[in-house]
Amino acid sequence: MSKLVECVPNFSEGCRPEVIAAITEEVKKVAGVSLLNVNSDASHNRTVVTFIGEPQAAKLAAFNACAKAAELIDMEQHQGEHPRVGATDVIPFIPVSDITMEECVQLANELGQEIAEKLNIPVYLYEAAAKTPARVKLPDVRKGEYEGLKKAISSPERHPDYGPAQMHPTAGATVVGARQFLIAYNINLSTSDVNIAKKIANSIREVKGGYKYCRAMGVMIEDRNMAQVTINMVDYTGTPLHRVFETVKSEADRYGVSVIGSEIVGMVPLQALVDTAEFYLRLEGFERKQVLEENLR
Amino acid sequence: MSKLVECVPNFSEGCRPEVIAAITEEVKKVAGVSLLNVNSDASHNRTVVTFIGEPQAAKLAAFNACAKAAELIDMEQHQGEHPRVGATDVIPFIPVSDITMEECVQLANELGQEIAEKLNIPVYLYEAAAKTPARVKLPDVRKGEYEGLKKAISSPERHPDYGPAQMHPTAGATVVGARQFLIAYNINLSTSDVNIAKKIANSIREVKGGYKYCRAMGVMIEDRNMAQVTINMVDYTGTPLHRVFETVKSEADRYGVSVIGSEIVGMVPLQALVDTAEFYLRLEGFERKQVLEENLR
User: Name one GO molecular function term (chains A, B) (predicted).
Assistant: First the structure.
């Protein structure tokens, strides 16, 4: 079993396929990295690339992709609906297995420094890598976007964490950081009353006194005539899936409603499933390396 | 994600380290195979080797190890407490992921044929690969052991499935087959009364009307002063972990006893944990490829 991180860089190009291909090619050609997904949006004029790999390999892939984006994308020409400050807009590292958040913060610092020194692009650190509370949230770092930051960057409170206090003439700035894996999780209810789903969502949402790492809404799934609690689990190591599931089940019961199923949308780290099995089977002393497939890596 | 099998060949040598090393070296040097465990027992004079890999790579590793054992082990000289018929005594293939039992049976046939033709060793097929009911169980195939089978092999009902109807002069015969993964699973009770554990074990054992793929006993764990139901799950795809756990919980409750924990001893296939999480979280439409780490293979 080797250390594994996920990296999800966002690039300010969602229209020109040859540019997107050139950038993703930089990821593909690094040994020890697996490209999982490339998602381009034309109206956002933005591409989200997802890959996993050994930490140093992931850093190299992120750097090479960022260098290629700086070469091919001109922010002076860029238009799109999504907020952005640079050709490579944001690069988060996410711990997947056998690695701590602190190690991902360290990785973000190494990459940020390298981008600043070798590409002359100012770099801001965000989320777990942020050096001040004002830079934890991405919208705060990105305030004014590319056009606004061109001027604002010269004022000391907007100076970058690495690199020159002026925008790269075409590539702008880049935000690098570390955050937890986000699990998109929906719980389906045996009711068509969306208000029940909204009340249950409020019972688990951090802002309403619920779980710290839980964002939730009640929504209606029209084609199934079914109310749903739709959840972003922003740190499954702090607020585990089973706890949210059991709380929703218990709150639903108060309205005479049942949980008829749940859905994990997209990817989930193996550890979240191991944690679930550990809880329900009351496992004692279980270790990841007991999972047969873990011995292949 | 690639097809993956486990292979657990047993060799009739548990004392001479240089012979054991030479055999396991044959496994190690095949690309696409990971050696998980080597367990030698001197009184059994036997070594159990566990490895996983892509099917054709696993077959090659098993063949090469078998050829090396035929070269270095002389059954005429072999003594040990454990029943055996050959230098390579038995080679089971076990489906791990993305592969069916039928494919493992096919693999056993290919390997059996190759051992017979290239090494001139008679091969018997057992368990899921057996061609007649009389050869499903290993003890039936091994009846008379090496010494007895030397004569018996000439009678038509003991003719091998592949190869000559006479023992190899030094390597004897080899039994090849396919079976499910066995999970060793214990459930701990909040009582020191072993009779309660025995009664609960009877409720889940196949022979007492319990689950088809469940072997169970009630035992006392002296150092914790605790009764335990100790279980062999011989096919977790037919009788899943969660069903056995929930039945034990329910039966224990009838005696006013609680389940205080459970233990998975040794390895468990990822799929058994996925199945557990699917059951308890009532997951809809979940696929293995949603497990992030699965995308590395």
Answer: glutamate formimidoyltransferase activity
